[in-house]
Amino acid sequence: MAYIYNNWAATTDGHAPMDILVDLPFLFLAVAAVAPQMLRPQLEEVKQKQALALFIENVSPIFYTVALLTLSISLMHEHFYAGTVGIFTALVVYATRSTTLQGRYIRVQRELHEARDRLEQTALTDALTNTANRRRFDDALTLEWNRAIRNRHPLALLLIDIDYFKMLNDRYGHPAGDRCLVSVALALQSALPRSSDLLARYGGEEFAAILPSTDEAGARLVALTMQDAIRELKIRNETSTGLHVTVSVGIAVFESAHAGTAEIIEAADQALYRAKQRGRNRIEATSQHEFLRNGTQ
Which Pfam families match (predicted)? Predict the structure, then answer.
């Protein structure tokens, strides 16, 4: 194509516009490379170069495709096959470039979505225990409560409190307290029977577990499994409940639309309060019927 263009330029007088068309980008690049250094501060220069790079990357393939098409079409009456090859080459190059840009765009979009998902996961996870945080718990409880009402299934909520955790912190220090929280979280998570169950750090040394489609008997079984898992950790903490860390569990099971998420949390909190008042290291439960009959305590 270079040979044909040179031959055409040497034997015709109409090549000046084509020369301008081909040389114009290089003139533009030369001016753009020098002008920012004289007219812009350093930060602005960087921004200009970035904009220039994007412009060149996206526009220059189109520009040269048009130039090659124009040259090839103008040569077809004297060099038909060469002109045809030029047109075909221009179209292939443009299609290849478009496919490459599209693939790059899809890859960038995927990376952005993955980064956003990681950011959302971080925003919904407790940094110490790697369980769900309070924000995720609130969202999940609302979602599961609405689903339970829609499907007419019971929903169980467990509030789990580490007994005498402040005593452990005071006696062994906050690093030991943090290690205790991490170990307890892992043990509680291992006690959940289904992937749809959610464990969250509710606050301080208190955890919460949401058990969809679970009645009181099923919730008590999970709570007993949790206590066994904590007992097997054998984390030292001499208290009235024994030599090692224990937990108290309050259970609330609701299954009708005559209440909401605030009420099920309050009912579980009342049950946890009773468990702590009655000696700790025990399980207490409040049904929706009992909660509505007795009211708040």
Answer: GGDEF
